[in-house]
Specification:
mainly alpha; 16 helices
């Protein structure tokens, strides 16, 4: 079940960079559209969880939901949405692939955990593969806003990495609450902060939100990108560890390449093929090592409680 959910998550997340770009290019305010996306997606999931009696409204009052929302939703997507005004989706995918590497570095530098050399080597191979895969297709104009956009995505990945690590502790702390409900709560909290940010920084014209491109982008990102993709991500964090689900960032450029070939008959160059092979090899190195501590050795405290949660999903 872990592998099936991982594949679904990769397929969903592999299309979200383009969906965000379509909405932003259609004129949707980045912070506002991101906030609406996560508030609505989180609200629908949370109502369902409350109806199923797997969550209570009081969950939204816990500081852990807001802290997780800052990392996984507010910090990550405020940076990404803003940056995609100036950076194309291919470049965004490359820069977002630094997430798993940052997780390993945070584990080593902040949490003082020993990181296996094999896992670090796999991350480096995977990141090199992403560059080989996407770089030949990217036209880079190194203007000021392009550089700021690149820096913003990297800052967002720091938020993402910290949020992914912190979410593991939150899942264990709220062992009697479904990870789906925890994910819904953090999306609502992060989305609310995005809307507040929009109120102070953007002028929202509803006409720009009502174009077919903006509506289609928003609906796809709400249902598939947030409700489906992020729920599976949170489930995988509970079932394995923060690093394993994060390797979807290496898969997304591969998915884009395959879809381009099938739907638009785009050529696949030798650089792209080499990048795809290197990416998959890197993920194999990372995943072989990263799944073992939780599944075999019980590295994290409260692992048995997390297993019980995921078994009930």
């Amino acid at each position: 079940m872990v592998i099936v959910n991982y594949v679904i998550m990769c397929m969903v997340f592999g299309t979200t960079f383009l969906a965000i770009k379509i909405g932003v290019d259609a004129g949707a305010p980045p912070f506002f559209s991101a906030g609406v996306r996560f508030v609505l997606a989180g609200l629908l999931l949370f109502i369902w969880m409350v109806w199923k009696k797997r969550a209570s409204v009081s969950l939204l009052l816990h500081k852990e939901m807001w802290l997780t929302g800052i990392g996984l939703t507010f910090g990550t997507f405020s940076m990404l949405y803003w940056a995609e005004q100036y950076v194309n989706s291919g470049t965004a995918a490359i820069l977002s692939a630094t997430g798993p590497i940052m997780i390993l570095l945070l584990q080593a530098a902040v949490l003082r955990e020993r990181v296996a050399g094999k896992a670090m080597f796999g991350c480096l191979i995977g990141f090199a593969g992403v560059i080989l895969l996407v770089l030949p297709q990217v036209s880079i104009k190194a203007g000021m806003f392009w550089l700021l956009g690149c820096m913003a995505i990297l800052i967002g990945q720091l938020f993402y990495s910290a949020g992914a690590l912190y979410s593991k502790k939150v899942i264990q702390r709220f062992a009697d609450t479904s990870p789906v409900a925890l994910n819904a709560a953090q999306m609502m909290c992060g989305g609310a902060m995005l809307i507040v940010l929009s109120m102070f920084t953007e002028r929202v014209h509803m006409d720009s939100m009502l174009t077919p491109e903006a509506i289609g982008s928003l609906l796809y990102l709400i249902v598939m990108g947030s409700m489906v993709g992020h729920t599976i991500f949170y489930w995988l964090v509970a079932k394995t560890n923060p690093l394993f689900p994060s390797t979807w960032l290496y898969i997304s450029p591969v998915i884009a390449m395959v879809m381009g070939k099938i739907l638009y008959n785009e050529a696949i160059s030798s650089f792209m093929a080499a990048g795809a092979v290197a990416t998959i090899l890197g993920i194999m190195f990372v995943n072989t090592k990263s799944r073992r501590p939780d599944s075999e050795k019980g590295m994290y405290r409260g692992h048995s409680g997390v297993t019980e949660i995921t078994r009930r999903q």
